[in-house]
Design a protein that fits this description.
By secondary structure, the chain is mainly beta. The chain has one helix at residues 401-407, and strands at 2-3, 38-45, 74-77, 88-93, 96-103, 107-115, 123-130, 137-143, 148-152, 157-162, 169-174, 181-186, 191-195, 205-209, 218-223, 229-234, 239-243, 258-260, 265-267, 275-281, 284-289, 294-300, 324-326, 332-339, 351-353, 361-365, 370-375, 420-423, 430-435, 441-446, 450-456.
């Protein structure tokens, strides 16, 4: 992994590991906030830069910058910044990983740039964590090489390579409760849990989730806010809920990682195609599959994160074949469906803003460059999860009967049309949408180096 620096005057990310942002630290309460959707403000189609011949440059004699037309598959925001800091986000695709700092007036500035050493690498996923000793921002990236690169963004260098998957790495997620716990999904049909703690550097693999979970490529992962549950979805049309061991344990850092064979919930009938995006919203689940043109909100019957996690011995086995197996009793409830047009290909990821104290929002892009957005607070009291929380965390105004009728949210098989759509000029495919933790910024990335910045409108 090679680094290319920008101007020396460029500021670095300013994470403060000792100060966790207070989600309730807002100028107005949610009930008083005059909220608006973020609107498109800036578009970047790739980043002009000088590329040496070995990196694919064609115009080295005139030294003109060459713009690569990589597809950016992933956007991820640094989640540990203080509220007063400008949001920092990373995009990756092809050989490139680019780190930007958002600026409300200027758009964004590049603060770090990495080029992968492998000429055949196609990066498709990234996630942030931090060094708990130094506070340095750490970015993990993966792709078709099957390895995970751990990058120190402040120092601009590769610090570790995680090797173990037998095929492409499709998704990476950091535990919301422990920045040292990393989950990875692969085309080898397994999920691996890694420890990034320096004392486990020689043997970082902590657990393997494989055996009777997935039969084909695992495309997507999502942690529950408690850190004890992990969702997975894949090309086998299966969505699983795994109960994770409380890591680290005595065997962490040894050559005996914990083997988890069975998930506590598994279903092949929530979706009918490749499941490429999942997210928890409280105890509710949002999921999307290729060719369905919708995002589904659903819940596992009788599942509640407030109850103690079930032991592994309670996980249902595959000895008796069922389309849905659950350790919690029952199956699942389909609650709502959001109409997501032009999302037929797989590997198009929605974005969810679900931070406590923030206005909840959902967004997804498609093949025409259109971004569809939904205000989840508007429909928050339609249903309740096992924990008693509504779709918008149950702390805001109820939905009127008129709104329910207009949105079609009394019928779990009706589809809710987008509350707002915005078209990105030139119609490039949007591969992923992401939100800053404070909800002020949204970024969409996609084909031909697309990076589109959306800014939340200030209350009037």
């Amino acid at each position: 992994m090679r680094r290319r620096s920008r101007a020396s005057s460029t500021r670095r990310p300013r994470p403060n590991p000792q100060k966790t942002p207070d989600p309730s630290d807002t100028s107005t309460t949610m009930a008083q906030e005059k909220w608006k959707f973020p609107l498109l403000k800036h578009i970047f189609m790739g980043m002009a830069r000088e590329i040496p011949p070995k990196d694919g440059g064609k115009d080295t004699k005139s030294k003109k910058p060459v713009t690569l037309d990589n597809t950016f598959y992933s956007v991820s925001f640094y989640p540990y910044s203080s509220p007063e800091d400008d949001p920092v986000f990373a995009v990756c695709g092809g050989l490139e990983t680019i780190v930007y700092r958002f600026h409300p007036e200027k758009g964004a500035e590049v603060i770090q740039y990495f080029v992968d050493d492998s000429p055949t690498e196609v990066l498709c996923t990234s996630c942030w964590t931090k060094d708990l000793e130094t506070g340095d921002p750490i970015l993990c990236v993966g792709g078709n090489a099957g390895t995970i690169k751990v990058l120190n963004v402040r120092e601009g260098k590769l610090t570790q390579t995680l090797i173990g998957h037998g095929d492409e790495v499709m998704d990476l997620e950091i535990s919301p409760t422990d920045p040292n716990i990393l989950a990875s999904a692969s085309a080898d049909s397994s999920i691996r849990i890694w420890s990034l703690d320096p004392k486990h550097r020689q043997q970082p693999l902590a657990s393997v989730l494989a055996g009777e979970g997935h039969r084909e490529t695992v495309l997507t992962l999502a942690f529950h806010a408690s850190g004890r549950y992990l969702l997975s979805g894949g090309m086998d049309h299966i969505v699983n809920l795994w109960t994770l061991p409380e890591l680290p344990v005595e065997s962490t850092g040894t050559d005996s990682p914990i083997q988890v064979i069975y998930p506590h919930f598994s279903s092949s009938i929530v979706h009918s195609n490749y499941i490429d995006c999942l997210a928890f919203h409280g105890d509710l689940i949002l999921s999307k599959a290729a060719k369905e043109h919708k995002i589904i909100l659903w819940q596992i019957q009788n599942f509640s994160s407030s109850a103690p996690p079930l032991p592994q011995s309670r996980a249902p086995t595959t000895h008796e074949w069922r389309e849905t197996r659950s350790a919690y009793g029952g199956t699942y409830d389909r609650l709502l469906q959001f109409h997501a047009p032009d999302t037929e290909p797989f590997f198009l990821h929605f974005g969810l803003l679900s931070e406590p104290g923030r206005h909840p929002m959902l967004a997804v892009g498609g093949t025409t460059g259109r971004v569809c957005m939904w205000d989840l607070r508007r429909i928050e009291n339609v249903s309740t999860a096992g924990s008693g929380d509504g779709i918008g965390e149950g702390n805001s105004r109820p939905t009127s009967s008129k709104s329910k009728k207009e949105d079609g949210i009394n019928d779990p098989f009706a589809v809710i049309k987008p509350h707002l759509t915005q078209d990105i000029p030139k119609g490039k495919t949007v591969r992923e949408v992401g939100f800053s933790k404070n909800g002020e910024c949204m970024v969409a990335v996609g084909d031909f180096g697309l990076v589109a910045l959306f800014q939340k409108q200030s209350p009037k």
